[in-house]
TrEMBL record:
Catalytic activity: ATP + H2O = ADP + phosphate + H(+)
Stated name of the protein: RNA helicase
Bias kind Polar residues: ranges: 18-37
Enzyme class: hydrolase
Q motif (motif): residue ranges: 115-143
């Protein structure tokens, strides 16, 4: 190597430029590049003049080189400053979107997903996946909830349906996991290998749990070191039979009962969980779920456990229970706790009786108001089946989904509906929560829901991701108590057009006792059929007579067979 050439490298004169005007301020990227060149040159020169090989050359580990490469890649583009830098900026954002926050030492919200890279060093692949899926700007709930979770805060999050609550807890969950398993933690003495499941997401229904898993799989695609799982029947059997270990996965999405069953069989260990999310929290703390939720939380014994709950509706009683199991949570409310999405046009239709409902829905079809895709909600499984048989004979492209259908059947129906092969889906409240169908034009409440929360979740299947949707609720004379709660939600959402004045102002407010009674004891309704009652009774009587005749015939068969055998024996003797 020519030492003189190496030492004089870079020292050239440009005679075409002279004076102070030829000097320009170097950018940070240029400075970093120049520093890198100088460092490389220094090492080259030292190696050349080390005649006796007694000079110690600094060695770099693979992890350090990886970190240097990452730092170089991150430094290639100068990141803009965060959009939200002061409390004044935060106040403007909160006022604009109607966000109410409370808690101790509240962090500043974010104004863009790029702010997460600037403030929390968000993984680039994770950011690219978000942009690839069309998530270019954070929603109000994401602006507040993501930074709060990144600061390891417990969260109570309430925002309208279709407002991006799923990503509000998945993004910080994935990023905090990446920080936890990074090589830097190992350097600091924090062993992350074999540390068990890091994150747990619990949802009340299988459909919603699988949807969350699908979203999670999309945003972690290509991110190294992360393994996620949906706890279905097949995986549960493998865990129970020790075919695979639960520690293989970093994040698990599940429903309560299946998880509890595995915990009790010692097939899954929740003691290392760092972050648990309860989605549709108001449902998870209802009387039929609260015991299961409590058993799951009890099994999560990590002293550093972070808890988050999210829902479109959170009642005061649910919030009180949640506060009792959380540590100084940050409370984030977007809009009103029991208000519907403002992108939904809500309408009430009085039908008189059950026969009037069938006439009303057929009129909507004939007059062009029935614009697919449409979801129709009913109170019970028998009623959903009855309406399905009525509409399918009208030639409508329709199917039904409820708890009595198998998981495979439900999944097939949902796939057909998503692909547009079905125009209308009839269902019970099994699909009322969280399921994200793209572009639902209308929701019809054939039966009035038994609570404000159920109403908000039902109509929340439309008007998602900024689109405009329509919600129509049929009511009859027996629904006068229930319809009052619907009117209250409509008033809070600013959608009372067409609601009679006597219904808005003249009806007395329901007591808490009455509300609980309506939840426990559904309204008794007439049957769904266009056949007159007298004809229906005649048909039933005829079916009963036929069934009775068949039963008698079956009972008499052994006797007839015995008599025939006796006759044959007598004939043989003769």
């Amino acid at each position: 190597m020519d030492l003189f050439r190496a030492l004089t490298r870079g020292a050239s004169l440009d005679k075409s430029k002279s004076g102070s005007g030829s000097f320009t301020k170097a950018t940070s990227a240029q400075i970093r590049g120049q520093q890198g060149k100088q460092k490389a040159l220094k090492e080259e020169v030292e190696k050349e003049i080390d005649f006796f090989h007694d000079h110690k050359i600094e060695k770099h580990t693979a992890d350090e080189l990886e970190d240097e490469t990452k730092d170089k890649n991150e430094g290639q583009d100068d990141l803009p400053p965060p959009k939200i830098q002061t409390e004044e900026d935060a106040s403007k954002l909160r006022k604009k979107y109607g966000i109410k926050t409370s808690g101790e030492d509240l962090p500043l919200p974010i104004g863009s997903f790029e702010d997460l890279v600037t403030r929390f060093k968000l993984n680039r692949t994770l950011l690219d996946n978000l942009l690839k899926e069309g998530f270019t700007e954070p929603t109000p709930i994401q602006c507040e909830a993501i930074p709060a979770a990144m600061y390891d805060r417990d969260i109570i999050g309430c925002a309208p349906t279709g407002s991006g609550k799923t990503l509000a807890f998945l993004i910080p969950l994935v990023q905090s996991l990446l920080d936890f398993i990074s090589p830097k933690n190992s350097v600091k003495g924090k062993s992350t290998k074999g540390s068990g499941i890091y994150g747990l997401v619990v949802s009340p229904t299988k459909e919603l749990a699988y949807q969350i898993f699908s979203e999670l799989s999309k945003i972690v695609n290509g991110v190294p070191g992360i393994k996620v799982a949906y706890l279905n029947k097949s995986l549960a059997a493998k865990l129970r039979n020790k075919v695979i270990q639960s520690s293989k996965f970093n994040i698990i999405v599940t429903t309560p009962l299946r998880l509890i069953s595995l915990v009790e069989d010692d097939a899954i260990d929740l003691s290392h969980i760092h972050h648990i999310v309860l989605d549709e929290a108001d449902k998870m703390f209802e009387s039929n779920f609260v015991e299961q939720t409590d058993r799951i939380l009890t099994a999560c014994t990590n002293p550093h456990l972070r808890r988050s709950i999210f829902s479109a509706t959170i009642t005061s009683s649910v919030e009180e229970i949640a506060q009792s199991v959380m540590t100084y949570p940050e409370r984030i409310i977007v809009g009103h706790k029991e208000a519907a999405n403002t992108n939904i046009e809500q309408k009430l239709v009085f039908c008189g009786d059950e026969h009037g409902k069938l006439i009303a829905i057929r009129n909507m079809i004939q007059q062009g108001e029935f614009k697919p895709p449409v979801i129709i909600f009913l109170q019970s499984i028998p009623r959903a089946k009855a309406l399905f048989h009525e509409l399918i004979y009208d030639g409508l492209n329709v199917d039904v989904i409820h708890a009595e259908r198998t998981q495979v059947q439900r999944e097939k129906v949902l796939e057909k509906f998503k692909r547009g092969e079905l125009w209308c889906l009839i269902c019970t409240d099994v699909l009322a929560r969280g399921i994200d169908f793209k572009g639902i034009n209308m929701v019809i409440n054939y039966d009035v829901p038994n609570s404000a929360q159920a109403y908000v979740h039902r109509i929340g299947r439309t008007g998602r991701a900024g689109r405009i949707g329509r919600a129509v609720t049929f009511y009859t004379k027996v629904d006068m108590d229930l319809v009052k709660t619907v009117v209250n939600v409509m008033k809070q959402s600013g959608s009372v057009e067409g609601v009679p004045k006597w219904l808005r102002e003249g009806m007395p407010k329901l007591s808490k006792k009455k509300k609980h009674e309506l939840k426990r004891n559904p309204v008794k309704r007439g049957r769904i059929s266009t056949v007159p009652n007298i004809d229906s009774r005649k048909r039933k009587k005829r079916r009963d007579m036929i069934d009775g005749s068949k039963r008698r015939e079956l009972l008499n068969k052994p006797k007839n067979r015995k008599l025939q055998d006796n006759d044959d024996q007598a004939a043989n003797i003769n």
